[in-house]
Design a protein that fits this description.
This protein has 2 domains: 10-44 and 300-391, Aspartate Aminotransferase, domain 1 (Alpha-Beta Complex), CATH 3.90.1150; 49-296, Type I PLP-dependent aspartate aminotransferase-like (Major domain) (Aspartate Aminotransferase, domain 2, 3-Layer(aba) Sandwich), CATH 3.40.640.10. The protein is 46% helix and 14% strand. The protein has helices spanning 12-22, 47-59, 72-83, 99-114, 128-136, 156-162, 188-200, 223-231, 262-279, 286-296, 298-330, 337-340, 352-362, 379-391; strands at 29-30, 92-98, 120-124, 141-145, 147-148, 153-154, 171-175, 204-209, 235-240, 252-258, 345-347, 364-365, 371-373. Strand 7 (171-175), helix 7 (188-200) and strand 8 (204-209) form a beta-alpha-beta unit. The structure holds pyridoxal-5'-phosphate (PLP).
Amino acid sequence: MLEQLQQQPPDKILDLMQTFKEDTRANKLDLGIGVYKNENGQTPIINAVKKAEKILWEQETTKSYTKLTGDSDFQTVMKELIFSDCVSEDTISTAHTPGGTGAIRQAFELIRLASPNSKIWISNPTWPNHISILKFLNIPYSEYIYFDKKTCELNFDGMMESLKDTKPGDIILLHGCCHNPTGANLNNEQWKELQKFLCNNQLVPLIDLAYQGFGDGLDEDAYGVRLLAKKCKEVILAASCSKNFGIYRERTGILFTISENEKIKNISSSTLAFLNRQNFSFPPDHGGKLVTLILKNEELKSSWIKELNEMRLNMLDIRKSLAEELRKESRSNRFDFLETHRGMFSLLGATKDQVLNMREKHAIYMIEDSRVNIAGLNKKTLSKLARAIIDVGI
Ligand SMILES: Cc1ncc(COP(=O)(O)O)c(C=O)c1O
């Protein structure tokens, strides 16, 4: 039987990691995988997480099963972190999932159950996993314009124009903040315009929030999410704690639905529990417990926010210095977009050949679409990148 399986294409990002590992050049630079790195190129455990792990080890008395949708305290603290006071208890349903990817997957399955003919609209480009999961689940999707490759900025007019082809009941997949891979984001005015359009055209937002706190701050990054949660009849939101708590391998994510009324909310809650049961039964508990301990303890919470802010400001600093360096190298301001982008990534708008040239000539690794991980740079390596960008003709 197994011989009938077909070789699957490797995940491009994981494949790149392997190629990087095998490269023996001492000056190689990895700007591929989306993991935060400090000045020394390490991804250390956040202090508050370490402390929470100690508390958990001391206090935990059982490893018995929790609820199918996870621990209620985790749901409460995450609801508060993401939505603040923008949603009513009567309309929100929640399920803890294995990572943000698990939340996206469950969201797609929920949409398929509720409305198999609805199309899901994704930004062009988007996080490649959105597309591969949609294809795997056989869910119809279309792309909306998002990014202007010439200016490397958001093409908001193009986005709104292409959304005119949607039909009532279609789902619009949005990145809550820190768009992956482009780094280009909607400003508050654009969120307002989009919200009106979604409501007027009976479209359902599905928001992927994987980088809250990595852009302009925890509340600032939730502006669009909270606006849609307040104004739209229905919202689906998939969030990840991987990046902002630095607990990538603990697989900690959460899925929310906001329904029109309490009756529908109850059905939605039961569906979330059902989907968890079918796919993996209980979600992994450890990461959720750490997040709960941190967010419920004032001291740990402020220590976490401090460290998160340091990471955020470090990325902004790198963006500023890289743009400055490129101003000098290119004698132009055509790379200033790097300073206005937010989050861990920026898309450079380079060709595949230029990206390969970077790898071969300069030992600089980035994703084929020219996405760079800004957090993979430091004061020394950003000059190397700036020179290489000009050298390969970007
Ligand atoms: C846009 C986006 N969504 C979701 C995720 C999921 O993250 P995880 O499954 O690691 O929590 C990621 C991670 O790279 C992402 O970039």
